[in-house]
Design a protein that fits this description.
Layout: H1 17-29, H2 39-59, H3 64-77, H4 84-96, H5 100-117, H6 120-136, H7 140-151, H8 162-175, H9 179-191, H10 198-212, H11 215-224, H12 231-247, H13 251-261, H14 270-287, H15 291-303, H16 305-308, H17 315-318, H18 326-338, H19 342-353, H20 356-361, H21 377-383, E1 388-396, E2 399-406, E3 409-415, H22 419-434, H23 439-451, E4 462-466, E5 480-481, E6 484-485, H24 486-489, E7 492-494, H25 498-507, E8 510-511, E9 515-519, H26 530-542, E10 546-550, H27 556-562, E11 568-572, E12 574-576, E13 586-588, E14 599-600, H28 601-605, E15 614-617, E16 626-627, E17 633-634, H29 636-643, E18 647-651, H30 657-672, H31 677-689, H32 697-700, E19 703-707, E20 712-713
Parallel strand pairs: 1-4, 4-7, 8-20, 9-10, 9-11, 11-15, 15-18
Antiparallel strand pairs: 1-2, 2-3, 5-6, 12-13, 13-14, 16-17, 18-19
Helix pairs in contact: 1-2, 3-5, 4-5, 4-6, 5-6, 6-7, 6-8, 7-8, 8-9, 8-10, 9-10, 10-11, 10-12, 12-13, 12-14, 13-14, 14-15, 15-18, 18-19, 22-23, 26-30, 30-31
């Protein structure tokens, strides 16, 4: 296969030995705050620790030095040693298959060898490939960083480096919305591209010209392009031509072009391109003012979604299209919401979430087939108790749509906040919490009033929140209404989707009071968590039937051995979320055989955990992961739920040892008395909140209850 047709993949890796220290150090730094004398001192300590955490991360992320060091370790472990260029080829192949983390590991070996042999050409090519994979995975700052690093090294054939690297810079600018800047980069890439590679650059250039408002030049560039021999690339170009007609204010011609594409055969990808063709028809009909026809077209597009979602396609990234299926769902939600059809809008929103895991794994892991089943509104309503309310959000580019579902109705509200603005609001709120700032209270009042104030929620109602986009990082329990935190008036649970939540609520409604706990896994001194060990011992006293694994005994091998027979699983350890490939998020368990042996999310997917009702990750930032462009968080959450567990408790930021000990002991104490897990979680959070030394949300609000909110524990 020609190089240009395979180009472009290499991977960033957050999973290095050194990286373990970034989050791990953050957790250690935040241990033991509960002993500080005053709330102000607590806040100051939290802020200082957060600052140190940030510095640790900046010093130890996917830097050139870190990746080179990781490559040296990985290369040393290889029984068969390849050349640096062979590792580059390996990295490309893995990346094009969607194996981002594995790809970066191969690229890291190439970096190591380039450094060891002082080979500037290999260094240029390894950095080129890393830039490309970061771009593909949406890590734009890193993509640009490695692209510019590649340009610093002398390549034997500049066209193999300069052209692709400048294209990456153009792709980064496109995804940031800087289309004029992208055009400049693509022009430079085109001037430094081989004859084979040039068509990919031209295709990206055309798309950027369309978005930048220069359809005339886009038409000119299109006219110079020879028809590609590759069927998918041909289909992508024809789709671009239809987009150009829309940009030229020719919606009727665009509609006809898109309709013609709905009948196009593109081999195994026929349904995929037909989906985008129907979406184009919908866009054209909207431009023509034909809202009903647009609704029908978007319905046709959504009808093909489930058939095409689980496969990664690099062609669209090569051509600068960066298509995202979520945009089809967004269009559907917007169309039905504008038409006043709350039920249809809600169900489209729900459908957008129910297959997200399939998007993430791309055939790399076996998952529970129920993960793909969507529950309709009527079924959901029959499931809800009288005091339960589903609060589901969908973030659109120009607004936030919210539905409140009760057993006998659905109400839709619109919040006039753009997605970019919402991102900033959530980030500001989170920063004020993690830094221990007093402004967290003010921010909680503002966000609570905006997001929940219009919903008419009655005190005492149980809330099952289905977040969307940036709201996955928002601790809803810490929002405030009428001067009180939501957790003071409402038990709160979170669900990746209501379809998932309904299934989970039915999976294990009641389980035996048998606890399996892992505490303070032994790795290195800097990872020690003495508070975690104390925490596990306290919980074990609440459950006479228990199995506890501490220190060197808290291994991955042991975890896998007991996973199938542990109704309640508690893990007090460090955890890391992988921003590039969520299936490589990992829990840091004890060394085995003198080597690190961490439990990764893709391994969790393969565990038989149908008998596990609750997994508690009493770990730093265990609830975080990559958000799949407006979809749910992918990482530990989906791994454990898909493996069979029905409930998960995980954190949104680094946690305090003392606060966590109070929360967990209260929560499990209430569970042991027969209280349901949503009420038990509320009791645990309130127990911390009522302590004046830990009343700031930093201490009591980090943990989310995800999944089955009704779980109870028997004798």
């Amino acid at each position: 296969m020609a190089w240009f047709s395979r180009w472009g993949w290499e991977c960033p890796a957050r999973r290095r030995a050194g990286v373990a220290g970034a989050l791990g150090l953050a957790c250690i730094l935040l241990a033991g705050y509960g002993s500080v004398a005053s709330a102000q001192q607590q806040a100051t300590s939290a802020e200082a620790a957060a600052s140190r955490m940030e510095q640790a991360r900046l010093a130890d992320t996917d830097t050139l030095l870190a990746l080179t060091s990781e490559g040296a370790v990985l290369y040393g472990q290889d029984s068969v040693k390849l050349s640096g260029y062979q590792y580059c080829s390996q990295a490309v192949a893995l990346a094009e298959a969607g194996e981002f983390r594995q790809s970066v590991r191969a690229a890291s070996k190439a970096l190591h060898l380039a450094n060891a042999t002082n080979d500037p050409n290999l260094m240029a090519m390894a950095n080129r490939d890393l830039a490309i994979v970061y771009s593909y995975s949406g890590q734009l700052e890193k993509a640009e960083e490695f692209a510019r690093e590649a340009l610093r090294h002398q390549a034997r054939d500049p066209k193999l480096v300069v052209g692709p690297v400048q294209k990456v810079i153009g792709d980064v600018r496109s995804r940031r919305g800087d289309y004029s800047g992208a055009v400049l980069s693509y022009d430079e890439a085109l001037a430094n591209s081989s004859q084979r590679y040039a068509p990919l650059v031209q295709a990206s250039l055309v798309n950027a010209l369309i978005e930048s408002g220069d359809p005339a030049r886009a038409r000119e560039v299109l006219g110079t392009m020879a028809p590609p021999k590759d069927a998918p690339l041909t289909a992508q170009l024809d789709r671009t031509r239809a987009r150009l007609l829309l940009a030229e204010n020719k919606p009727a011609e665009a509609r006809d072009a898109y309709r013609a594409l709905t009948a196009r055969q593109v081999g195994a990808d026929t349904e995929y391109y037909r989906l985008w063709a129907w979406d184009g028809v919908a866009r054209s009909e909207l431009a023509l003012g034909q809202k009903q026809a647009a609704a029908e077209a978007v319905g046709r597009a959504l009808g093909d979604v489930d058939k095409v979602r689980a496969r990664f396609r690099s062609e669209e990234f090569k051509m600068g299209l960066f298509s995202d299926l979520q945009t089809v769902f967004e269009r559907g939600v917007a169309i039905y919401s504008d038409a006043g059809d709350a039920r249809q809008a809600f169900e489209v929103s729900e459908h957008s979430r129910s297959r997200a895991l399939l998007d993430a794994v791309r055939g790399r892991a076996k998952i529970n087939e129920q993960a793909a089943t969507t529950v309709d509104l009527a079924t959901l309503q029959r499931t809800l108790a009288a005091d339960e309310r589903v609060v589901q959000f969908h973030s659109l580019p120009d607004r936030l749509v919210v539905w409140v579902v009760s057993p006998d109705g659905i109400a839709e509200k619109t919040v006039a906040v753009k997605r970019d603005e919402l991102n900033e609001l959530v980030e500001t709120f989170r920063n004020s919490i993690v830094r221990g700032r007093r402004t967290a209270i003010t921010n909680a009042d503002k966000l609570g009033a905006a997001l929940l104030g219009p919903l008419g929620l009655a005190p005492g109602q149980r809330l099952i929140v289905v977040p969307h986009g940036p709201l996955h990082y928002l601790p809803f329990q810490a929002l405030r209404l009428d001067g009180r935190y939501i957790i003071e008036t409402h038990p709160v649970a979170v669900a990746p989707s209501m379809s998932i939540a309904v299934q989970l609520a039915q999976r294990t409604p009641r389980v035996n009071a048998s606890l399996t706990a892992f505490g303070n896994p032994r790795i290195e001194d800097k990872y020690d968590l003495p508070g975690a060990e104390t925490e596990v011992k306290q919980l074990a006293r609440l459950f006479p039937r228990n199995a506890v694994y501490m220190g060197a005994a808290a291994t991955k091998t042991q975890f896998r051995d007991v996973a199938a027979r542990s109704p309640l699983m508690h893990v007090a350890a460090h955890a890391e979320a992988d921003a590039v490939d969520p299936l490589y998020s990992r829990i840091l368990l004890a060394n085995e055989g003198g080597k690190q042996n961490f439990l990764e999310a893709h391994e969790i997917l393969g565990l038989p955990m149908d008998s596990t009702a609750l997994v508690t990750l009493s770990a730093c930032e265990s609830g975080l992961g990559r958000i799949a462009q407006g979809d749910e968080v992918l990482g530990f959450t989906r791994s454990f739920l898909s493996a069979g567990s029905s409930s998960l408790i995980a954190s949104l930021w680094p946690v305090s040892d003392d606060a966590t000990a109070v929360l967990m002991s209260t929560l499990y104490g209430e569970l042991s008395k027969g209280r349901d897990i949503q009420k038990a979680m509320q009791a645990g959070q309130l127990a911390v909140l009522k302590d004046p030394k830990m009343s700031h949300p930093f201490f009591w609000a980090p943990f989310n209850l995800i999944g089955n909110w009704r779980l109870t524990v028997g004798s």
